[in-house]
Design a protein that fits this description.
InterPro entries: AAA+_ATPase, ABC_transporter-like_ATP-bd, MacB-like_ATP-bd, P-loop_NTPase
CATH class: Alpha Beta
Bound molecules: adenosine-5'-diphosphate, magnesium ion
CATH architecture: 3-Layer(aba) Sandwich
Helix content: 25-40%
Keywords: ATP-binding, Nucleotide-binding, Transport
Number of strands: 9
Shape: globular
Number of helices: 9
Pfam families: ABC_tran (PF00005)
Oligomer: single chain
CATH superfamily: P-loop containing nucleotide triphosphate hydrolases
Protein name: ABC transporter ATP-binding protein
Organism: Paenibacillus aestuarii
Length: 225
């Protein structure tokens, strides 16, 4: 599903070039559910941005679902992202003037009929326990409910790769656990590949697999020597 080869990415900071990612090789199989852990500033979000095609590495190959992202220009990476990636943010990124349902409707594939759209929306809002809340504005929902709506938005079109960047980072512990287990359960049932950044080791323990970014990243290993 994911294959990285000799990927490196640096950022220019105060006139200096700072290496952030230097990943010799990494493979993720289709359907894996992985928690990505590591200290703040170690490049976790940068790695997700590379995988979603928001940024390109300076060097190396990035393959996702057979697509060579490193060869794609921005427009093609945008198409790839719209079709194949569901992204879940720490702070939900719901549009505040739209209801939960309207937020999801925005990204429903244009090929879907009105009826299919309505059926799917009903099904998914029920599946995440928001059937009575879908006509609420984000501000009328709890933070956990907002993230459930954002999960529906990320998953409804069944993109093959779900990327979640600290999806429970702004939730209290119990809500975080419930939201994480919902996300894991849906991705398992739908056989989606899930990569979730979390700094909470208890939440990471819920995942079938965990990877520390410092085990992927040659930079840190070199510095540690
Ligand atoms: P993490 O998600 O692990 O906390 P990030 O991937 O967000 O880390 O960032 C890694 C490092 O790269 C940080 O030092 C950050 O300041 C830097 N960085 C990230 N994005 C940019 C950017 N667009 N320009 C310059 N520096 C950046
Ligand atoms: Mg981050």
């Amino acid at each position: 599903m994911i294959q990285l080869e000799a990927v490196s990415k640096s950022f220019a900071m105060h006139g200096k070039t700072l290496p952030i990612l230097q990943i010799p090789s990494w493979r993720v199989e289709s359907g894996e559910r992985i928690a990505l852990i590591g200290p703040s500033g170690s490049g976790k979000s940068t790695l997700l941005h590379v995988l979603s095609g928001v940024i390109q590495p300076d060097l190396g190959e990035v393959w996702v679902d057979g697509e060579p992202l490193h060869q794609y220009k921005e427009a093609k990476r945008d198409q790839y992202r719209a079709k194949k990636v569901g992204y879940i943010f720490q702070d939900f990124h719901l549009i505040s003037s739209l209801t939960a349902r309207q937020n999801v409707e925005l990204i429903v594939p244009s090929a879907w009929s009105k009826r299919q759209t309505a059926e799917q929306l009903d099904y998914w809002f029920e599946r995440v326990g928001l059937q009575d809340r879908m006509h609420h504005l984000p501000a009328q929902l709890s933070r956990g409910q907002q993230q459930r709506a954002a999960i529906v938005r990320a998953l409804i079109a069944k993109p093959k790769l779900i990327l979640a960047d600290e999806p429970t980072g702004s939730l209290d512990w119990e809500t975080a656990r419930d939201v994480m287990s919902l996300l894991l359960e849906i991705c398992a049932a739908e056989q989606l590949t899930l990569l979730t950044v979390t700094h909470d080791l208890h939440l990471a323990d819920m995942y079938p697999a965990r990877i520390h970014i410092q085990d992927l990243n040659e930079i840190v290993r070199r510095e540690a020597v």
